Model the fold of this input.
Amino acid sequence: MSAVATEITYLEAIRQALFEEMARDANVFCLGEDIGAYGGAFKVTDGLLARFGESRVIDTPISETGIVGAAAGAAHMGMRPVVEMQFIDFIANAYDILTNYVATARYRAFLPCPMVVRGPSGGYVRGGPFHSQNPEAGFVHTPGLKVVYPATAEDAKGLMKAAIRDDDCVLFFEHKYLYRRVKAVMPEGDHVVPIGKARVAREGTDLSIVTYAATVWKALDAAEQLAREDGLSVEVLDLRTLAPLDDAAIEATVKKTNRVLVVHEDTRTGGLAGEITARISETCFEWLDAPVLRVTAHDVPLPYAPALEDFVLPQTADLVRAARRLAAY
Amino acid sequence: MATRTAARTRAAPRRDAAAAAARPADAPPSAALSRAQLLELYYWMRLTRTLEERLVALYRQTKVVGGLFRSLGQEADAVGSCFALERRDVMSPLIRNLGAMLVKGATPVEVLKQYMAKADSPTRGRELNIHFGDVGDPATTRGFVGQISPLGDMVPVMAGVTLSFKLRGEDRVGLVYVGDGATSTGAFHEGINFAAVQGCPLVVVVENNGYAYSTPTSKQTRAERFVDKAAGYGAPGERADGNDVLAVYDVTKRAVDRARAGGGVTLVELVTYRRKGHAEHDNQSYVPAGEIERWAAENDPIDRYAARLTGEFGFAQDELDATDARVRDEVDAATDVAEASPFPEPLDCLTGVYADPASAQPLWFREGILNAVERNERAEGWGTYRASEVTRTEAKIAGGND
Ligand SMILES: Cc1ncc(C[n+]2csc(CCOP(=O)(O)OP(=O)(O)O)c2C)c(N)n1
Done:
């Protein structure tokens, strides 16, 4: 008799993916700060050391460049390293080696880099300026890197498995606000979600909200409120992968609703919403009934005080207001 | 206010004439400390501990917004080392150097407000814990540069601070703290190497407290002693028992004097122990049984120093008790002030991204801003983010007529 399916958290889903992939492929190994006995700052790697031992769950010195570089070297040799950034903010320390070295290795020199760099990202948790960032835009801008940022527990697991199996370097952003707040029953069997495919999180016909990560949940809340209070049918597109972007899915939703709101938690100027908006205007201009709008964080470093953080980051009310404006256009 | 009394004591001449005269040539720098200064060292350590205990209480009441990082058992290393600086010198702390911040002039009220994210905290609610600074004219500022979270970054920054002292011929020295873990960062190596090559008047203090988060020092470096790394930079190294406040003062004072005399960089290793977890939420399951208790029982820096004060230096227990009481009163008073302080207004966080407000990115509509502007809240003093611009941006979006 099969056990009753239980819901697991987004965090636990990632942990399951790591377990399953390490069990499946002896070339997969993890490295990062405090990931062994301590199980990682957020406990994502909890239990991996006990199961796979010190040679495959490696506690490193505090050396982000060193960790990423070593992972790249091992990846050249056929290993599949999974690097943990204790907080994704510190990926900035490895920006050089990721963008100059890892991203170009295949193109320049036919050097494979099958590796994953994963870590807790994002705000809404009062972490202050250095424990809340969303640095995806800089990496999406760099050819040679793939970027994944799941919003649901199912996707966290399925995309992590795909990322580990991918033959390129995948930056896997995990939203720390979702770690323990979002839960789901995992699909049975070897659950792999393909990289590069967006997901319609809610069907709708009046306007589309295109977003990813934590703001998917804000978009769903906004859609609910707009249906209730305004009778609006809002479609929510969860991008899931930011590089490569799923242009077909974006086009499909634009052509369906003709009104688009692009939402993300990262700051606005130079953020991914600008790129998405430009693509829509290039390929779907005649399908639009309104200018594409963006709701993002304000262009300031993320502040610490609750009232300030709430103000800087996009909130459901901001999405509702923007959507009403779009619908009325 | 009592804090000021202590600061005054500190500014007073460092040596008792009689003691200085009787001092042998090779006596350690601490032999020149006056009785008032000896008691002051005790005061700063006690203030550090009591203030942190208050922060723990506030943290439990969820009044501290972010995490809390204790320096329990490390008070001597922060206080003794920073005490070797003069007011005009500049210091940059690490998370566990609250004691150094206090010695350099940060007040308990500032620290409490900062942790509670109050509007009139040193960073107006934008930053957390002891991430704040006070630099500029040495006559009016206290000379500290707030750290940031990415470890090691302050070493090159302090290389630059001290390079400027050298370039301008100023008689000032810099001191930067890093943990054993932070020595593994590229920024640490680049900073100390740069400062050493340039002969900057910089003291790099490595606080070896046994752990970096959960990682024991043996997994951070193969080197047995951090002080041995100094040779690799061509710099002198000094090592001391970080739980002996006078030993800490002695090694740091020698390094500071050397820097002031043109001797460049010194790497100082202070050996201590982190008795609390990385932060309050960390249960220290990775620490071998008995280790913490041993350090607490045998090697508490305040207990050790108190015993020396009453023994070797002939202080009366009453003097120490009076200091403890004074510290409690100060922390109580500071808590009342900090708790009564207001929280920041949301719109305040839009200003100050650039020195020139006109460089700020244009505003776009968001409910929060519109509501605030409609209420005409703080319409003045928020840089480029003026109501007129909001209205214009709104019109642009609504009308698409630009
Ligand atoms: C570059 C970087 N990587 C990771 C972190 C996360 N982190 C914060 S504190 C810490 C451990 C610091 O240890 P150590 O330098 O020894 O100082 P201690 O906490 O022991 O005082 C880590 C890994 C960080 N702040 N910066």
